[in-house]
Design goal:
About 55% of the residues lie in helices and about 5% in strands. The chain has about 180 residues and is mainly α. Strands 1-2 form a two-stranded antiparallel ribbon. It binds heme C (HEC). Heme C binds near residues 100, 121, 133 and 143.
Length: about 180
Amino acid sequence: MDQSTANPSAPPDDREAIARKKLQRLGAVIGAVTLLFAVGVVVAIFVMATTDPPTPQTYAPPVPGSINGIDVDPAAGRQLFAQNCASCHGKFGEGMIARGVNLRESAFVQLTSDSKLLKFLHVGRKANDPNSILKIEMPAKGANPLLGDQELGDLVAYMRQIQIDARRTTTASTTASTAP
Ligand code: HEC
């Protein structure tokens, strides 16, 4: 602090008072900054404590609903499934050893949007695909070239339905097994 700011011609008492005032002001500024910091820390802790970790997006069934503007129907999908998919994935989508995976509990189905699942059914998955689970091919359209957007959309709706059924069954059996 140099003398030029404090009035050099002022009597020594005044100079002391001016210096004290400056010190008080500095103290107030430090106090305010400290308070702001403390409030920031409290807010940050609160936000961290009350924010849930992000949960992965899951998809509800389009029942009744539409995919890419086409109305789809899980009941129609059930029939198509029996005719085109059950030979590998099992009658209820429960999976068959060395033929097709469980679709009732498939995380891929759960985490993939309707339109992306539709696209998937159009092309299937090659055995050498890096994402392949069994290293066996999932044939495009379940190997039935007659299936179009309508049929494959119905099948997506059906897969949503059996995933819901599976979750309900799992919850029921968990409850049953823990009951006295
Ligand atoms: C010839 C046997 C076969 C038929 C028929 C078949 N699939 Fe598959 N499917 C597979 C196999 C094998 C896989 C697993 C591929 C892999 O290893 O990643 C699979 C995978 C899938 C998956 C991905 C599951 C996941 O968790 O990654 C879906 C969805 C699926 N099939 C739906 C269908 C539907 C719907 C039909 C009927 C239109 C069908 N499949 C017909 C053999 C078949």
